[in-house]
Design the sequence.
């Protein structure tokens, strides 16, 4: 008989979160406190009220899901708030056994006169680094031999943004404000990549990857080809939000044109019905794409609760595409997306997956190891190998102790 996968085992195992939005993962108590300190008006001044009005258990659609970011971004407009949010996020992960995270966010949303791009990135790094140092000096690491906490930062560009934001970026990029909006967006992402690479190379910040997020329909990834080519030439790793709210062709676009090494969400990989008219054999296209992804070990950053909330038609966890990813042996890792907006943790996401898809201890182990192996680790290849080896050895000890 297969030994049970208990909550204690899930919590004890070293875990990763490779798809983790800073501005979607604040502590709710901190949001209330920082809003009061900064004069930011919230729909409610209590945690209960905010959970009822904004951060719900269920959302009607992606638009409602994203509504809460207006408030979280509003309080993250100074370096003190950014450092605090990052520090708390790191410890929230450490406390549940997560040992490696990649925090992603759009620095441009936190810039204004008096706060530069560099200062935004440095503030986030300070918060994460402080938590790392504290954990590394803890009894858990020094005496019990637990793996130390590590992190990287992923910079996010946007496929589309608001009119006011477009005007601001049009001035930054030196293009005319009446230029086609898609041209403005691509110019913006290119400038963002240049700034990120500068911060990594000149300031030594652990910026490990570049991401493209936002509305997929009508705003294809290949508009940002020059940006991703610059990232590739500069050895900056690449991930793309794709297949979250659009079909398999968006995933193909990210892989074929942007050289994405990981795919954010990828939920609609197995949705032939969402293929466009240019695809003559939708099911064959999906099968070939899945085989291509599997063969090249392109990792999918799976966010189960977030997908259920933004795509109510999925219905239940059992219907999630992670089932097919497991069946086809794809490289997939479980992530939270937004800890606050989705009211979740890595442990909760793993619990959902284990129960819904009858994962064995071996399957769980493999999924966790995918996260560490396919991370954009901020160190040399040899350093990453040594860290992953430490993780695997510790994982096996924990599994042996819990499952016999």
Sequence:
């Amino acid at each position: 008989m297969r030994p049970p996968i208990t909550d204690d085992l899930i919590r004890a195992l070293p875990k990763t979160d490779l798809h983790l939005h800073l501005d979607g993962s604040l502590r709710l108590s901190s949001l209330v406190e920082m809003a009061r300190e900064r004069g930011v008006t919230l729909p409610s001044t209590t945690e209960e009220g905010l959970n009822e009005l904004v951060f719900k258990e269920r959302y009607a659609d992606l638009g409602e899901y994203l509504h809460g970011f207006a408030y979280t971004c509003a309080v993250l407009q100074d370096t003190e708030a950014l450092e605090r949010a990052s520090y708390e996020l790191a410890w929230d992960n450490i406390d549940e056994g997560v040992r490696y995270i990649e925090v992603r966010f759009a620095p441009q949303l936190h810039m204004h006169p008096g706060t530069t791009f560099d200062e935004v990135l440095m503030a986030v790094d300070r918060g994460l680094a402080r938590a790392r140092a504290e954990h590394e000096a803890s009894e858990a690491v020094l005496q019990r031999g637990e793996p130390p906490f590590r992190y990287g930062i992923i910079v996010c560009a946007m496929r589309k943004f608001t009119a006011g934001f477009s005007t601001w970026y049009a001035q930054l990029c030196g293009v005319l404000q009446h230029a086609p909006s898609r041209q403005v967006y691509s110019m913006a992402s290119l400038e963002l990549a240049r700034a990120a690479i500068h911060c990594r190379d000149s300031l030594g910040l652990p910026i490990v990857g570049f991401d493209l997020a936002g509305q997929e329909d009508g705003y294809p990834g290949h508009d940002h080809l020059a940006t991703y080519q610059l990232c590739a030439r500069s050895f900056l790793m690449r991930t793309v939000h794709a297949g979250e709210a659009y079909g398999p062709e968006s995933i193909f676009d990210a892989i074929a044109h942007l050289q994405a090494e990981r795919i954010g969400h990828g939920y609609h990989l197995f949705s032939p019905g969402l293929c466009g008219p240019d695809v003559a054999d939708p099911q064959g296209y999906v099968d070939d794409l899945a085989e291509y992804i599997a063969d090249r070990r392109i990792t999918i950053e799976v966010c189960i609760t977030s997908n259920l909330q933004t795509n109510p038609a999925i219905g239940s966890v059992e219907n999630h595409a992670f089932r097919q990813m497991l069946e086809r042996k794809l490289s997939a890792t479980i992530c939270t997306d937004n800890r606050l907006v989705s009211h979740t943790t890595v442990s909760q996401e793993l619990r959902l997956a284990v129960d819904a898809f009858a994962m064995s201890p071996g399957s769980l182990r493999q999924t966790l190891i995918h996260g560490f192996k396919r991370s954009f680790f901020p160190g040399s290849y040899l350093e990453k190998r040594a860290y992953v080896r430490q993780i695997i050895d510790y994982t096996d000890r924990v599994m042996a102790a819990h499952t016999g």
